[in-house]
Amino acid sequence: IDGSFSLAWAPYDKLSLAGGPDALVAKVELNKISTSVSGGGGQPLYTDAPGAAVASDNSAWGGGSVTLTPYGFVKAALAAHPTMSTTKVGGRQLTVVSFMARDKYKVNGYINAEHLIEKVETWTPQPTLGDMLIETTFAGYRDFGGVKFPTRIVQKQWIYPVLDLNVTDVQPNAAVNLPVPPAQPPQVARVESTKI
């Protein structure tokens, strides 16, 4: 998946996302938008900031970030014992598929009449707010090589937007290379003692 996105505090001009078809794994590589270095007046300094993040069953709340994607939601729901109900949102009837992820987190997915996921929501413990809503919405589905995928993904935690993704390209069944970085030897601490 290629596209652009912004976090609440900084825009990025490139996002590459790769996911494995047989596992809930996603790797995100980021390139921050180049801007002239500025700052002062409470403004952070911005320069190029490449980065990478990997989410899997062993990360965060057990691959929860992947479960909040359309393909991850479907895979997680199929592995759980989901329930279905209907609700009206904005005058439209949606099917709600609910299940417990990792026997701990309730996840609801809202599916429209075209069988496309419009929203996935869950709650996670937060010390100040109690159970904090994490809501991911999907819009602008397009056909990419026979696969319908949203071109706009927005995620909010509580009331704050934390991710705004504009997808420009999806390559179904593309080769995925998720290399593991080489292990680094532990740092040796040098300690000198002196008699006082």
Identify the overall geometry.
extended
How many strands appear in the DSSP assignment?
11
Structural class: mainly beta
List the quaternary state of the chains: single chain
Kindly report the spatial arrangement of strands forming the biggest sheet. Answer: 4-3-2-1-11-10-9-8-7-6-5
Mean pLDDT: 74
- Tell me the span between the first and last alpha carbons: 63 Å
Q: Please state the CA-atom Rg, rounded to the nearest Å.
A: 20 Å
Q: Total helix count?
A: 2
**How would you characterize the largest beta sheet?**
11 strands, antiparallel
Bin the helical content: under 10%
Low-confidence stretches: 2-9, 20-27
Series of H and E elements: EEEEHHEEEEEEE
Beta-strand fraction estimate: over 45%
Give the tags.
mainly beta, eleven-stranded antiparallel β-sheet, single chain, 196 residues, 2 helices, disordered N terminus
Ordered list of secondary-structure elements with their pairings:
Layout: E1 2-6, E2 11-19, E3 26-32, E4 51-55, H1 64-67, H2 70-79, E5 83-89, E6 92-101, E7 105-111, E8 117-126, E9 130-144, E10 147-157, E11 160-169
